[in-house]
Design goal:
This protein is α/β, with parallel strands linked by helices. Helices cover about 45% and strands about 10% of the residues. The structure holds one RNA strand of 75 nucleotides.
Amino acid sequence: MSKVRVRFAPSPTGGLHLGGVRTVLYNYLFAKKQGGDFVVRIEDTDQTRFVAGAEDYIFNCLTWCGMEPDESPLTGGPFAPYRQSERKESYRQYAEQLIKDGFAYYAFDTPQELEKMRNDFKTAENPSPQYDGNVRMQMKNSLTLPADEVKKLLAENTRHVVRIKMPAGETISFTDMIHQEVSFDSSLVDDKVLLKADGMPTYHLAVVVDDFLMQITHAFRGEEWLSSAPVHVLLWKYLFGLDKMPQWAHLPLIMGPSGKLSKRDGAKYGFPVFAMNWTDPKTNELTEGFKERGFLPEAFINLLAVLGWNDGTEQEIFSMDELIEKFSIDKVHKAGAKFDFEKAKWFNHEWIKKLPVSNYLPRVKEIFEQKGIVINDENHFAKIVELVKERCTLLPDFFDQAVFFYQTPVTYDEASVKPKWDDAKQDFFAAFINSCNNITDWDVNSIETAFKNLATEKNIKVGELQMILRVMLVGSKMGPGVFIIAETIGLAETINRIEKASIYFSQF
RNA sequence: GCCGCGUUGGUCAAGGGGUUAAGACGCCUCCCUUUCACGGAGGAAUCACGGGUUCGAAUCCCGUACGUGGUACCA
């Protein structure tokens, strides 16, 4: 058996949304599991929708997610070119071939004529009439026009398209890897355009021709393509033979809180829908990405993988390697899944805890620097990040959880301290500063011991004192253990913060 | 309208003729910690509906409802 070759075929029209990334992911996992090739081909046959920069954006997303293609416009490969716009010439001959064999025809109808047909045939029962077996003989095409007139029109370069001639009364069926047997009545499918007036193929022709030429063995795509699958099946039958057709897998859609997940949902409900930030060059509108929101690629991949698939065990956290090992297409769901941002955050939280800090330290550092905190000592910073990582779900949380290591508090949780503050406490902390100065090894244990001994000596409850110390050092009741905080900020800063706070509290 | 696909707690889901119908997120209670988390122990909450088939149906069949996709010279 020949090598497995799976392709992802995005059209460069904008950001890469969740459903898109999941499609790539399943493509990638399937290909890698079989030791096959992961091919990325760009479907840019519609110039009107082509958006500058979108192709680069797609590859940036793939890189961030850790899914490098084996063949692509960037890497090249044995079946180059990998952009359909650059393969334009090859499609026409297949269209001509179909016409010659009686499976397709030239259609000369103008957009106005099509519009008129749709209006004329429109009824309450049939709100959107198709160009199909019922109307094709009343239209302007090589089936209805005399042969010499067709020849003349072609010779004059009259604008025309090539349409597939859908047979009547046939059942077109194929086996989908996810849905099993799927069948359609050919009479109900319309005569899809194969070659557009500008000479570019439509997706229908291009996908079949390219999959054949690139020797694709498996094709994964969103379920929105299922309806046009009969066209592709027929094209395979007419052009190359059904035995060479790749195996199809139509993946369920990812849904938003209400209906199909859209870009708008992101803005509306406050979560990202794209892998990375995307700015539409035409409108300058920015759509937030998971990366910029503070997600780790490991978590992003993980949450997407299990949205519509699981391995049948209770495991939920998977690395890319584990996914490749455990992924199986027959465990992919048939039904669409609603995206839950709360659960998405949970995955990120898990990965922040799981991964070594060094993995995301640069990104956290960047967040601090953007907010004006200068990090001189990276090792020290790494220790701090390690200290607070289990209380962070998104990367920006690190700032809120750890700024106080770099900034002396300016405000205090007065409500907590006020009822506890008295002369005895004032006295205690003055004495504690002395104890601190006597500590030879400034570490958690010595600080804690000194603190507790002094408390016992002065006969004050340790708990209360600890709470006050925390507010002195942090400003509020949050963060890791007080003594580890003291150790981390150092002797001088600890004393400084106690003194400052004592003065503040003495005004109570 | 027509065609396709689907339907297990609020969400993600396991289970595919006999189960007390797993687990996770979220929510609630308690423990731990005189902080916030983490962690631990509990709790509330589900087989869309109606018919069959069967000793027995979440599971198989048929309808219905609902959801969703398509119905473009877009992918």
